[in-house]
Amino acid sequence: MSLRVLPFVTAALLSVVILFMPRSGVPSAPFGVDKVVHVGLFGLLAVTGLYARLRLFPLAVGLLLYAVASEILQATLPIDRSFEVVDIITDWVGLAAGTLLHAWATSARGRRQRARYLRRAADEDS
C-alpha cells in the first residue's frame, strides 16, 4: 500500500469517530458549527481520497452513499443521534468543495500561484 493512502485512511477513521460518537460525547458548540464540521470532514475525505489517487467517480459515489448511510445509522444506532437531511446536503457540499480544491491545487495555475505566494513570503522573511 502506498503512503499516499495513509491520509485518506486517517480521515476515514476520523470521520467514523466524529459521525458515530454518542451524543453524550459530542461537545456543545454554537449553532451551525455542526454543519461546518460536516463540510470540513467530507472536504477532507475528498481531498485525501484524490491525493491517494482514487478515481473521482467511485470516490464521489462512495462518499455520497457514506453521507446518507451515516445519517441513517445515526438515527438507528443507540447513540442518541438523529437523521438530518441538512447534514447530508452539507456533506455533499463538502465533497464538492474538496474536489474543487484538489482540482485547483493540482492545476498549473494553482501551482504557479502557490509558487508566487511562497516566493513573496520568503522575500518578506529576508
TrEMBL record:
Signal peptide: none annotated. The keyword Transmembrane applies. Pfam families: VanZ. The chain crosses the membrane at residues 35-52, 59-77, 89-110. The keyword Transmembrane applies. Keywords: Membrane, Transmembrane, Transmembrane helix. PANTHER family: DOMAIN PROTEIN, PUTATIVE (AFU_ORTHOLOGUE AFUA_3G10980)-RELATED. Residues 28-102 form the VanZ-like domain. InterPro entries: VanZ-like. It comes from Allokutzneria multivorans. This is VanZ-like domain-containing protein.
